[in-house]
Amino acid sequence: MRPVDPVMDRARRFLHLAAALSLSVLLLGASAPREAAAVELRVKAPERRVAVDAMEYPWSAIGRVNAGGRGHCTGFLISERHVLTAAHCLYDPLAGRWRGAIELHFIAGYQRDRFILHSKVASYTRADNFTYVPSPNLKVAATDWAILTLAEPLGRKAGWLGMRAIDSLMMSRITAGDALLLQAGYRRDLAHVMTAGWACNIAGIAERGRVVVHDCNVIQGDSGSPLLLYADGTFYAAGLHSIDLMSEDQEHLAGVLSLSIFQPQGGRREAVQALAATSARWAPGQLPGEASEAARVPLATIDNLLIKLGYLQVADEDASGKSRAEALRRFKSENGLTSAAKPSLEMMGQLLHATAP
Questions:
Q1: Among the four 30, 139, 159, 220, which has the fewest Cβ within 10 Å?
Q2: Beta bridge partners of 108
Q3: CB of 339 within 8 A of CB of 346?
Q4: Comparing C-alpha atoms, which of 77, 345, 148, 95 is closest to residue 234?
Q5: Which of 101, 146, 150 is nearest to 126 (CA)?
Q6: Model confidence at 26, in pLDDT bands (50, 70, 90)?
Q7: How far is Cα 275 from Cα 98, in angstroms, rounded to an integer?
């Protein structure tokens, strides 16, 4: 269980800084040409981060939003035809205009220049009151969303993420270590490989609960990626990454639009109406179809975590059989787990918990 005091201390420091307007705010932005960059990003070295197989759920529901050949952001499926991403990813700062849907493509299962699941974007909806600015603030981040409608129903093959809001009870569970926050995307420094970071600590809440701030490592290219919540054996989307924050003491923080703005009760009317036009659900998501190329069990991530924990020496051909089975048996026995010692989403969640501080 993680200690409470350091987290609360970070929250108090962040809220004090925000009130004093002493945060330097940057676009996470599309991975874009140099002339479009407003400020050089300062990033701490990632600590809890692993490469994941983009063709394994839940990672298969996360993909690249390729924007007119001028860079990329991340987005994630919330239904078989709808992708949630950051609105600023759709703006072309060099041309000074919003990109047309015809310029946008969504790619799932993308790994090292190889992609299997691809669709053009047929149309998109964004917040009317969002205005692109090179150096946004928390108020801008609170409206930084867009829903893409795909020409092809990729969600049938890739699966999609269910949605869940971070309320006060969930905040307590996260602080107590009973639930876990993660982030996964196509960051600028590893644009062709999906990586995931986890055990994010909430550092503050802003804009009347619409923006959540956490301390997981994110950089350009991560815009539009989901803030994932692992709770009760299930992975949900809980937020949408929008901006990078830097405090006076050089602490790197990430600003996330809370998906609570889409909730029928208490959400923003425009966002609620936009989500209602999709089949997104406030419930567990959908696994890839049985006949899909995407895997329903994240074996590669499980192997990487077992290696990180020292239960598996190396991911090799044998790891899919006896080596992995023995590693999971040892992990279950040494950690007093009651669930079956077999690869599953729940097992991946338990391994992620085990590697959290």
A1: 139
A2: 63, 117
A3: yes
A4: 345
A5: 146
A6: very low
A7: 21
Distance separating alpha carbons of residues 91 and 86, to the nearest angstrom: 10
- Longest Cα–Cα distance of the chain, Å, equals 59
| 228 secondary structure, DSSP code | E
In total, the chain counts a number of residues equal to 357
- Which of 271, 163, 144, 283 lies closest to 211 in space, CA to CA? 144
Provide the 8-state DSSP code for 273.
H
Residue 335 phi, psi (nearest 5)? -110, 5
Closest CA to 199 of 185, 178, 220: 178
Contact 124, 147 (CB under 8 A): yes
Instruction: Count Cβ atoms within 10 A of the Cβ of residue 186 and give its class: 0-12 exposed, 13-18 middle, 19 or more buried.
Output: buried
Residue 55 is encoded by which pair of tokens? 């063709």
pLDDT at 210: 93
Q: How far apart are the first and last CA of the chain?
A: 8
Q: Which two tokens stand for residue 279?
A: 């089949």
Model confidence at 271: pLDDT above 50 = yes
pLDDT tens-digit series, residues 110-163: 877 676 799 999 999 999 999 999 888 889 999 999 999 999 999 999 999 999
Which range is least confidently modeled, 42-56, 168-182, 276-290?
A: 42-56
The Cα–Cα gap between 270 and 276 comes to: 10
Mean pLDDT (whole number) for 284-300 = 93
Distance CA 66, CA 9 (A): 39
